[in-house]
Amino acid sequence: SLTTINSAQENKYFWRSAVSNNVLDDLHIGAYQSVGGRWKWIDDDSIATYENFAAGFPLPGGGQCTGMLTESSSAKWTNEDCDNQKLPFICRRIGVSSLHPDCPSEAPKEGNDILAPGFP
């Protein structure tokens, strides 16, 4: 699903990810304007408790989807017409762990051997 952003730190992380992949204009994120006018996240319909809209946004009638401006490190948001504005997007992968299940959960002690899982 499109990404949710719940803090300034996450906003900066997704901005860096976009810029490092040469997305230098706008991109879609997962916030949308609900029928009642509240901004919610598309993945679970929760109310967006963190917002980073640019000055003057969201524009009335400007669209019910949200775009992140990537040309500035402030990574401000705008409302976009997602049916007519085809933009790159960022998705969130859920349940992905970068740790191998055989890796120890604590740091090795001095003098102990360090073994890689699956390595003879």
TrEMBL record:
Quick one: signal sequence residues? none
Q: Name one Pfam family in it.
A: Lectin_C
**What UniProt keywords are attached to this protein's entry?**
Disulfide bond
Q: C-type lectin domain location, by residue? A: 1-86
The annotated region (Disordered) lies at 101-120
Q: PANTHER family of this UniProt entry?
A: PROTEIN CBG13490
Name listed for the protein in its UniProt record: C-type lectin domain-containing protein
